[in-house]
Amino acid sequence: MNSPTEKLGAAERWTSEAMQRRVKQRYAAERRFKMFGMAAVGLSVAFLAFLLVNMATNGFSGFFRTEASVTVNFPASDVMVDPASLEGDDARSILSGAGLRGAIREAAVDTYGEAGEELFGGSAVNALTDMLVDDPDMLMREVDIMLPVTSEVDLAHKGDGSAAGEALAALAAERGTIDTKFNWTFLTASDATNPGEVGIWGALVGSFLTIIVTMLLAFPIGVLSAVYLEEFAPKNKWTDMVEVSINNLAAVPSIIFGLLGLAVFLNFMHLPRSAPLVGGLTLALMTMPVIVIAGRNAIKAVPPSIRDAALGVGASKMQVVFHHVLPLALPGILTGTIIGMARALGETAPLLLIGMRAFVSSPPTGIMSDATVLPMQIFLWSDEVDRGFVEKTSAAIIVLLLFMLAMNALAIYLRNRFEQRW
Amino acid sequence: MSLMLATIIILIAVGFAASFARSRVKGLRAGGARLNSLPNYHAAYVFLWGAVPALIFLLVWAPLQAMFVEQAVLATPEGMALPDTGFRPAVLAEAKALATGEISSAFNSDARALAPYFEAAIGRYSMIGAFIAFVVAGLGTFFSMRRVGVNFRARNGVERWVMGLLVIASMVAIFTTLGIVLSLLFETIRFFNLVNPIEFLFGLDWSPQLAIRADQAGSSGAFGSIPLFWGTVFIGAIIAMIVAIPLGLMSAIFLTQYAPARLRSWLKPILEILAGVPTVVYGYFAALTVAPAVRDFALAMGLSNASSESALAAGVVMGIMIIPFVSSMADDSIAAVPAAMNDGSLALGATQSETIKRVIFPAALPGIVGGILLAVSRAIGETMIVVMAAGLAANLTANPFDSVTTVTVQIVQLLTGDQEFDSAKTLAAFALGLVLFFITLVLNLYALRVVRKYREAYE
Amino acid sequence: MNDTNTTTQDASTAPATNGPPKMRAENVDVFYGDKQAIKGVSIDIFDDKVTAFIGPSGCGKSTFLRTLNRMNDTIPSARVTGHIELDGEDIHAAAMDVVQLRARVGMVFQKPNPFPKSIYENIAYGPRIHGLTTNKAEMDEVVEQSLRRAGLWDEVKDRLEESGTALSGGQQQRLCIARAIAVDPEVILMDEPCSALDPIATAKIEELIHELRGKYAIAIVTHNMQQAARVSQRTAFFHLGTLVEYGETGRIFTNPAKQRTQDYITGRYG
Amino acid sequence: MNDTNTTTQDASTAPATNGPPKMRAENVDVFYGDKQAIKGVSIDIFDDKVTAFIGPSGCGKSTFLRTLNRMNDTIPSARVTGHIELDGEDIHAAAMDVVQLRARVGMVFQKPNPFPKSIYENIAYGPRIHGLTTNKAEMDEVVEQSLRRAGLWDEVKDRLEESGTALSGGQQQRLCIARAIAVDPEVILMDEPCSALDPIATAKIEELIHELRGKYAIAIVTHNMQQAARVSQRTAFFHLGTLVEYGETGRIFTNPAKQRTQDYITGRYG
Amino acid sequence: STDSVSQLSVVGSSTVYPFTTAVAEQFENANEGVRVKVESTGTGSGMKLFCEGLGIDEHDAVNASRKMKISEFEDCQSNGVTDIVELTIGIDGLTLIQAQGEEQLNLTSQQVYEALAANPYGGEQTAQNWSDISPDLPNAPIRVLGPPPTSGTRDSFVELIMEVGCNANPAMAELEESNEDEYKTVCTKIREDEAFTEAGENDNLLVQKVSAEPGRIGILGYSFVEENLDKIQPVGLDGVVPTAETIGNLEYPAARLLYVYIKGQHVENKPALGQFVAAYKQAWQPGGMLGTRGLVALPEAQRAEADAAADGMTTLTAASFE
Ligand SMILES: Nc1ncnc2c1ncn2[C@@H]1O[C@H](COP(=O)(O)OP(=O)(O)OP(=O)(O)O)[C@@H](O)[C@H]1O
Ligand SMILES: Nc1ncnc2c1ncn2[C@@H]1O[C@H](COP(=O)(O)OP(=O)(O)OP(=O)(O)O)[C@@H](O)[C@H]1O
Ligand SMILES: [Mg+2]
Ligand SMILES: [Mg+2]
User: Fold this and answer.
1) Where is the ABC transporter domain (chains C, D) (predicted)?
2) Using a 6 Å cutoff on CB, does residue D63 contact ligand 2?
């Protein structure tokens, strides 16, 4: 069985031609398989890149607006406002009744002829109001200013407009100056019916208030129940039930939480509709299990030897947990929490059912006041009639994505920075 | 005295008592005694026993008091004059708000007359409540102060309170689950009083168009939910998975088995971004970019009636969203296969791909299947993508270019579209929610069991 | 007593120990769920002696050691019966606070496990939670004393703020010993304290054990018979959960009474 | 040659080995990243001998063993220099296919690692990927032969369809040996094959090694010196990555040439 | 608090939503510190929310794409909401659209009914091409994108076009007398094959789809038509092409009135509500802001009535439902 000749035969077997061919085939299969893997990753990354680039290119122009020059001669116009009266708080109310719209229209006709009437809209009025509040003395003289044009002309100037818009844009370019400027209004204003005047500030504040409520509830409850389940819970039916419901809640469709919020917070507890409080409560219930699961994993990752060490010097179980385990698990818990919060921040479906699908044109003043949130704003805008909303929707998406990416980057940073290898 | 004021007084007084306990114990230690518990624990012990029972009492008392006050007010002649309809609670609430100064004038004229009675009754009952709370706080403080001392195990006492807090926190999950089931169940039962459950569960015809309002055309709405569930499965469990499973799985394999550590540390978080993109963004992407492309493609292929709200567009985008979910579940399962399996196979002269295909993948399969089931449950519960990109027509079709609708879309439509509130249609949303909840519950529980059992096998 | 439970105790060694035992275990059984890991073990541990527990892997050495300061309480499935006393007090009595028991019966583990905090905080943690000091100066004093006794002071006195995990393995293990000493224990239990260390660090720890003897009662688990011979005065040999033989170290190694002890010492298994 | 690298080779044992060595390592260094785990080791392994590698934990035994069939290739950070040959062929040569090398130099690991497949499939896996058999009957034959040689046939012949993981630890380890045998290797490397096993299973494996000797060149890593003494004819003692001493087993244990070997064998460290 | 007194809340129809939001926006700009929330809940549940009661947290107004029903009115009454002001804000034309650049179609209600009914006049639906219905019509497949059953536009479509077309057949009018259920099924059930597809509520998308697909017909509100005349054109109905004018004088058959209902009792405590009504009245005047948004102003006489209701806060009585 073991004669040297047989051994030699065995060695020859490995060098035979058939075997060499076989090896070649096996290596070819190996390369193919690896290529598939690479292609899968490549394709996934390409999808992501396409999505991001698509949103960025669609939305980039949404951060800009077109302005055209116009000369307004206030002393000669119908605007009768005493500059001194604009020092007070009610400056905007005074100006809103002062006929600025008419003044702009007249000035536009002066500059651009009859057709120029159509050049400026509500956003120009708002912009002029802002200018006057900043510098009331403008009312005493003739001024050369740049005002935002209507959404239609704006689109035309950006290269995607209707025939009428094109004509107006050409007119403006011919008789005056037309220019693209960064649209600060988009960051400082709230919802509006005219795409030229919309902004995301109100929705951002709403998102912020909602997420604060979510965090204040979900984080402590989540961490405490993670601690309980991981460190103290006895092995029994009750604990099993808690575990099952947490794992299940983490995977329950988010819209079900909307139904819950509708039934419990609105119909039963009679909390106000459309309020960040209710949104926050609903999202907290949704986020809490995510934090529990992340928390448990982080706590589990703290090596038992640390617990033994503390117990060994006479710390009580509770002291072990709060002095050693929790501080060490904190980076992991925070990572999970941030990811959970990012998810809550981008969530829309449950909020549809608790009245946040609403038009709210000023930022909320508290957690009980009417509000909408950024993803809901995106959803509402995507439904709008006016074509000018397309770029605004994408621009709002860019803002939302930036928040997401920032939060995810923070989570990754935390994970890498504090990742412990025990 | 308002209950709020009582709360503040109790907190301050008990706080003083606690700090007194603390300094007393400190004194004992300075005297050389070896304490069982640190002074802070004694303080906390006193504080907890002094304040918490009293505060809990106040918390329970507040709604009771509201009840008593209301009864007292209703017993007055003006109160008895109120009609017993939905109108009464509103008037009472307003009168109360007037009495407590929350509002300055009333919408209901009757409220004004009732306000003084409210004021009197509230004053009376809060005095009673505050008094009892003071007694409770006093007793708690007194008895806990008496126990403070060298050998007293204050720490154990405090830890029991903390333990209680932990238990309560962990019960929030149970209450949430219960809340979901109950809030869905009640409305569902009402729905089944109107619509035969058998028809709902097994009917092939979903067409609530005929029963929007009592006075509207037709009254025999069809509530067969099979087409909805088919649409849900078609989009979420079939099309999305056809995209997500191969891409997710092969990505996981590439990242765990082939990619160098550095590349992996970059690619993994990048893939995870796909899961972090808000679904409303995917929805917009699907509706505005993917759906028209799919339609153009279908037309180019000669399919004339391709819908621009095709199942394909929503399904593909959902699949992309699910990729990282599948890949991280697969990643976990593959990582759970002991390295010894890999080594064992390589040591026999197998190539890496042979090892993956013949040893690692079969070993990880149960975990991967569990992970895929979880991914499916996530996909069928997804809402925004389908609301924005899938259709509303409840078609029983297997043509991916056709339009189908899903359960979540219908829930949103039924609850936010134009309708009459108490009709079967509204209630149908809750019934759909309940069925969806149970389907995902079963999927999740089963999948989690599979995943966990599988992980334990290698631990 | 049945056959497997027969333990050989040296009558001869008894006179060498002066006074009553520091700890006494009588007929201790330990179960993990249904599985019995320790079967009727009785052992005395003396104040001024180092007691070594030897035996093949899985025989229950660690389990028994952990019953002595009730560290087994932390394992939900573990159940202990029998009687264990410290200075004549039943350690399972209601009056015995487990947290204080563990302060009195310190423990050092197989793998050095300093807290991921500064060296200073590692030592100070125990005294702080027990309220042993009232001010910073006292605490400084305790930290220095403990590190000195553990023979670590000179090596770390200039870097007390550095993390305990930044020390070498042997230093970490001495830090853990110092940490145990800091709460002023009466007994120190060590579970294979050198098995993760290199020979030089091992020698240092063995030296330290020599020095600590007399100040504390010491029980040490080791799988290294030579080590047991070097550091201990009394040796207990465990096998399959039973205490096979217990007596003076010299005798156990040179003249074991039981065949199983003999087999083990000569490397027939393990 | 510097001091730490001086290896004592028995001139006396050389004649006892007939013919050229099956494998020869010359001046092998292994690095993990920047860290050098093996420093200039040269060793010959002979066809009809069992060679034991001993040494304290972390000295590089496993690392060296894994260089012999290039299993270290699977660790990205590992880098090997020096010359290793099998039957005179350089195993790092371009002409040497690593997949075939591993078939010719089989390996058995510390923890038994059967695939979670049937016993039959565990054995058949190797022959199948290498295409060693052409039909079912041949495969059945190979499986039976391999299990017989590993001394497992009688125990499992009626349950070949059961999962390999359902066997006891000792049986699993023999299954792994049978699996290695099935691809008809020339050398078998074993890395602490008994350390996870109980004494009875250990005895069985040791017996098996005795039987396999002569059919295959065998190299075995063990931390149990008694085991090395029992099963091997030649012993190599590693310390801190260097080969301290290599020679006939009897001599190494009775009359080591180096102080370090002496210290280790008498239990001064480890 | 004083703050919540200047917060107004409006719920209700998604059809009226764009008009109310436009008014609300202008109103807020003109009145510092006032906030108006407009939620699109649909007319039905809007009514339900509106009638829940009086109070600072209750809704102040409801948008409606139809008149309030007596049942809803009674619901309001029983909850203490007794003073309800009905504002008729304008007319919306339900329009059929086709892509711009095609030859303009002209259909009758009857033809639409015959093409889209599930069972025209109780018989089987066999029409596949428009020419199957009338030889005058093009020989092209029937492809209609319509509103989903959940939308108010669908109600209007059924009411204003389908039923009218159905009633043109005298037998059907008789059927209504004899067997109402049967009548409803025959006259209002819409076919469910590929000839009629339900589009989403996103009307903008509908415009894009129709413009991209010659031969396709869409159904939506007139306001969207004006916005998009560069892409699509209206289809004539019963010989009338919908324009602002034909709708305004109700000549166009498928025009409907839109309403906003106000809680009279809230006006006293919330001065902002009164101002809001005034602003609304301003906006619905011919040439007012709502006109630019596609809402067609009421004819002279009706508008005078509406103006009077807004000025005098005339409340509804049970008699108004006779
Ligand atoms: N937490 C536990 N749950 C269940 N069984 C356990 C547990 N800890 C130990 N055992 C079992 O109890 C027996 C004794 O274990 P123990 O750890 O005390 O042995 P040991 O002598 O310390 O071994 P080693 O030398 O390997 O440390 C073993 O069979 C072990 O498997
Ligand atoms: N994958 C790796 N990466 C980095 N360093 C490693 C790796 N594997 C082993 N080492 C290091 O190389 C040295 C030799 O390790 P090796 O596992 O060969 O020792 P060993 O003699 O087999 O020890 P043991 O008896 O514990 O198995 C050790 O210092 C170890 O820490
Ligand atoms: Mg142990
Ligand atoms: Mg090793």
Assistant:
1) 23-265
2) yes
